[in-house]
């Protein structure tokens, strides 16, 4: 259960076994249903999450519509809004389950206690978060321009496992196209496939 959490950390640093156990034992497991909030926009992020199973979505409030999906996160990624957690300020974004999800989580007080016991850990978590953010921006930039059908084809190529598990409305929001356009695109793709 804790293997993926530790493997993710160990990719970046060698850690003694007893410290690995300390880290793993500091996290608890929680399951979320689709659409459950892990962090609501306008609230302070109080936990660090590691996705064991499922897909989470980062949302942005929209003044005239429901929240916009900014990004999908899948298994074996850490996630929180560090600026909110460390700065004790409300998060602009939200974090929500895009499907049934199981996460490992640690609250801020336990995390700061872990940082005191393992002084290298904060810099390590921050480094992992920055790498994840850079990857997120790179992927998101691919969907910024082009025709709606091109955006959807890119999404299917780059994040096929996510495409199978999340709602079509969320995919449309993420790609910046209307649900109606996405339905038409999906129909045309299905109709254009030749069955032998």
Automatic annotation (TrEMBL):
Entry-linked PROSITE patterns: CNMP_BINDING_1 (PS00888), CNMP_BINDING_3 (PS50042)
Stored Gene3D superfamilies: Jelly Rolls
Highest taxon, organism lineage: Bacteria
InterPro entries: cNMP-bd_CS, cNMP-bd_dom, cNMP-bd_dom_sf, RmlC-like_jellyroll
Residues in Cyclic nucleotide-binding domain copies: 15-114
The name this protein goes by in its record: Crp/Fnr family transcriptional regulator
Lineage: Bacteria, Pseudomonadati, Bacteroidota, Sphingobacteriia, Sphingobacteriales
